[in-house]
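Moderator note: this is an archived Q&A kept for reference. The question asked for a predicted structure of one protein chain; the sequence and the answer are reproduced below.
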Amino acid sequence: MIEPLTPLSRLVLVTGPARSGKSEWAETLAQNSGQSVIYIATSRLDSTDTEWQNRIQKHQRRRPPEWKTLEVPVELAATLQQISQPNTCILVDSLGTWLANLLEQDDEGWQQILEGLITTLNQTSGQIIFVAEETGWGVVPAYPMGRLFRDRLGILTRNIGAIANPVYLVTAGYVLNLSQLGSPLN
């Protein structure tokens, strides 16, 4: 059953592994919100990577033509602050791609970016749906950059999950509402 977004669900987090259906679920929630939708694509188009272009095109074909699309690879907090308004649903796909675009930040710089995003989310008035990848369920990456990405993404999704309601896990094509099934950590 598809749960409509209500004023109580101002922030929504949809997380899950690759190819699980998380983007499709987030798109369904946005479509059923009854509001105008702004889709924020965090990826950077690489004209030399045809496989990546095909992935982007698949996402584009699924979206209704009336949705406005913004490409925001880095300035997510500032963009959300500018466009968030009542009666608008913003879908951000995805946090992992956004993080990858900022991975060169040192720990202090990344912490400031993260805190800025959380502050912005606490001040926005529209509904925002975030899509985030789950990367920490497997083997510890063999390289420092892989471990840094995995750890930062885990911290990022935990911070957003702490203020989002509902939080969904989509895996193997099934949607679980973690806000109903689980208990948040302090």
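Archived answer notes: The mean pLDDT is 92.
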